[in-house]
Hints:
Blueprint: H1 3-7, E1 17-18, E2 21-29, E3 33-40, E4 45-52, H2 54-57, H3 60-75, E5 84-90, E6 93-99, E7 104-105, H4 106-113, H5 118-137, E8 150-157, E9 160-166, H6 196-199, H7 206-222, H8 232-241, H9 247-250, H10 257-265, H11 277-288, H12 312-315
Antiparallel strand pairs: 1-2, 2-3, 3-4, 4-6, 5-6, 7-8, 8-9
Helix pairs in contact: 5-7, 5-11, 10-11
Amino acid sequence: xxxxAFSGSPSELVGRQIAGYRIEREIGRxxxxxxxxxxxxxxxxxxxxxxxxPELARNDTFRKRFSHESRAAAAIDHPHIVPxxxxxxxxxxxxxxxxxxxxxxxxxxxxxxxxLPLPTALRIAAQVASALDAAHEHGLVHRDVKPxxxxxxxxxxxxxxxxxxxxxxxxxKKSLSLTGFTSVxxxxxxxxxxxxxxxxxxxxxxxxxxxxxxxxxxxxxxxHPPFRREEDMALLWAHQQDEPPPLTGARPDLPTAVDxxxxxxxxxxxxxxxxxxxxxxxALRTAARAEPGTAHPATRPVRRPDAPRPPPDWARxxxxxxxx
Length: 324
Ligand SMILES: Nc1ncnc2c1ncn2[C@@H]1O[C@H](COP(=O)(O)OP(=O)(O)O)[C@@H](O)[C@H]1O
Ligand SMILES: [Mg+2]
């Protein structure tokens, strides 16, 4: 396959073969890649084949990180990280073959369903958190935690209704330059989940993922990310300077104790955030046990006689959330 073929319409690639994979159909596309369902002809299995935009193969910084981080990601064997089978280059096109995850991604889920019930949001969050923390323990920073990189497959049983996978480690173009703007001044990807230190080009570590992850969890509960601005520059400014609006403004059914948890996870200074993603989810789960409208967690989930009737998801088994 040539770069020319890639820069044409991806639908022209259906039926074509690249590096031992036969392309079957397009699954989706982001700012810098197209993902196809493909057949691994050597092992006769279905895979997701991600073809990166040719301009990325020409960027030396990106190529180095692509090869380093694909290797690192492939080395992590974790139930909530999409297994990478192969990451290489064919005819000037970087590609990644990985497990095909049948289901949806969190972006589509939120677009379709809006804010999720608390138990569902916590179940999904706990799985993503365990994946991120495992990556951080391997010295890997994701850098692009967002709903589109969280794949949601059907789970095993009613106690585990969904199985969540995190994908796309280190593949963001954002951290390549100060603000992630391309040479033609277009931003690749979304600015909704980008940490202040990423914006200002300071060194990042796992805590930049704590920030991005907290933005995602906020959105799963509120139906929108913490900061919404008309202009990209205003959004970048908000991440760096503005206080996130309290989640309970959008979700008055939740105890106000959750607001403090988001204030900490979304702190501008990495040091002020929860040290790990699971620490954030645990704090959120504890805060969510508090009475709606109170700032302190109750020891038992009892309802004051004068308390408003709990919304339906308050009654659901929040506290049986499986611990990965
Ligand atoms: N391993 C996979 N299995 C199934 N679908 C996938 C897989 N990886 C990515 N996808 C789908 O392809 C879409 C496009 O992916 P990508 O190019 O990374 O863009 P983005 O992450 O910005 O949505 C994703 O939103 C997801 O729905
Ligand atoms: Mg992606």
